[in-house]
């Protein structure tokens, strides 16, 4: 069996962010509930950014790093999202075009709430594993842009971000443990997006379902992998992170329940195995499909990795479907992730004052789902769009919608 | 098991996760949110109480629970 896993990973978490304490203060939310989130900032999409532009901006550096032959070996593109822009035409078509991927490539979009990225990645891994050709590659991008719902307790965690992973048979970033996948899925109405703008559901039910699935999916994993133990088998863990406090709560509950650990040992275990994975999410917020990969990239950047290390990965998507799987990473994985400069990009985001954040939300709302024609005002927010894009690498933004067709443009120095 | 015994279990778990609470503060008509329990705390109370009572309640049955009385009612159906 050939090795299969992640050859490259990159995240794009936008150009702007807002400080969570400032948002709590402006909305007059109860500060006591802020500690529960364990979040410092969250990413905010510009009015001219959507799930397509986020996906392309995440994947472009990976595509740029491929040789012509390697690019020709990309025979699958899957975009996981719950921020769709059309019922029929998948946003993968736009992503494929703007990334310049070969036409000898399957492409489609996939949905299962926040599990869609993992669903896409496992399909991609299976395609690579089954291919009789060496160098077969698949590009998987998880991309979501929240429409924040002002004056609610979910608003501070509703982020925006995309994570691109290149799946292949030279898995420098993470090599999957073959066949080590546990599943747990059933119908439940915990959270959903019934309209393009609304997020509905029951936070308490969602937390209980998440815990239920963590135990259920790990149980299925342990049935398939001899001797697997949640405490001893994995040096690191990376889990779907709607907000870091939820991961901390789930970890505490599951270890208390299954291992009878005392609170101090649980805290120590969290600090050692999980804290590195919530560093990026605590600065970005919930990015839905890509959140679990953002947590994985964060673990790879921030944990001390001086030898081959096994990571346990838990993906959960409301509704619900979940999976626990594992991969082996090494110091080379850490070097590969750090070379992408994800933390540096997070640090470089423009910090929106609350008034400007509200202005941005209004500007974003001007383009409603299903609009036939629309021209984006790219001169709005010039201090962000013009000044910042002039110094950064080129970024794709939405320029117009003409007869339902979305037209994008690269913003770069001199434009 | 009586309703009072179930209430005792829930009250004990609630006081464990929200140490500022006194026994007498917790009444049937309260929601856990009103008593200062955040979403993670509420999950802790619900799960720990099920363990102490030796029951497993499908999460979906807990979806519409908003006060302690209704929580006890759901638990009561499973003991």
Automatic annotation (TrEMBL), chain A:
Keyword annotations: Transferase
Cited SUPFAM superfamilies: Thiolase-like
Residues annotated as domain Hydroxymethylglutaryl-coenzyme A synthase N-terminal: 2-169
Residue ranges of domain Hydroxymethylglutaryl-coenzyme A synthase C-terminal in the record: 269-363
One Pfam family hit: HMG_CoA_synt_C
Protein name, UniProt field: Polyketide biosynthesis 3-hydroxy-3-methylglutaryl-CoA synthase-like enzyme PksG
Keyword flag Transferase: yes
Keyword Transferase set for record: yes
InterPro entries, sorted: HMG_CoA_synt_C_dom (IPR013746), HMG_CoA_synth_N (IPR013528), Thiolase-like (IPR016039)
Domain of life: Bacteria
From TrEMBL, chain B:
Sequence ranges assigned to domain Carrier in this UniProt record: 4-79
Classification via Pfam families: PP-binding
Protein name per UniProt: Polyketide biosynthesis acyl carrier protein
Natural source organism: Nocardiopsis terrae
Phylogenetic lineage: Bacteria, Bacillati, Actinomycetota, Actinomycetes, Streptosporangiales
